[in-house]
């Protein structure tokens, strides 16, 4: 398991605020359904839903107005690494 502090990221109609914490299962790397994953491509790291397309990969935030989907071509997606699946989000209540 990986435990990290976040800096403002939006997914699934939830705004992650500074100081929020996420738990990522490093063993869950297979893209399944509508789950949220921590993915990396070079120096870029995202927490997004991942949709496999015939022409590449789409990285999707639920807050599409502020964070439009990122589309990676097949060539770009070859370097995409799934670090793990988001399994828990902890919010700071102070």
Can you put this structure into words, describing what you see?
It contains one helix and nine strands; from the N terminus they run ββββββββαβ. With 94 residues, the protein is mainly β. The strands form two sheets. The protein has a seven-stranded antiparallel β-sheet with strand order 1-4-9-5-6-7-8. A two-stranded antiparallel sheet has the order 2-3. 4% of the residues lie in helices and 53% in strands. The longest helix has 4 residues, at 74-77. The relative contact order is 0.30. The protein has a single domain (2-90), classed as Ribbon (Umud Fragment, subunit A), CATH 2.10.109.10.
CATH superfamily annotation: Umud Fragment, subunit A
Assembly annotation? single chain
The name CATH uses for the topology is Umud Fragment, subunit A
The string of secondary-structure elements, in order, is EEEEEEEEHE
H/I helix tally: 1
Q: What distance lies between the first and last C-alpha atoms, to the nearest angstrom?
A: 25 Å
Strands of the largest sheet, in order across it?
1-4-9-5-6-7-8
Instruction: Please describe the biggest sheet, giving its number of strands, its sense, and whether it closes into a barrel.
Output: 7 strands, antiparallel
Q: What is the level 1 CATH name?
A: Mainly Beta
Query: What is the mean pLDDT?
Result: 85
How many individual β-strands?
9
Short description:
This protein is mainly beta and 94 residues long. Helices cover 4% and strands 53% of the residues. The strands form two sheets. It has a seven-stranded antiparallel β-sheet with strand order 1-4-9-5-6-7-8. A two-stranded antiparallel sheet has the order 2-3.
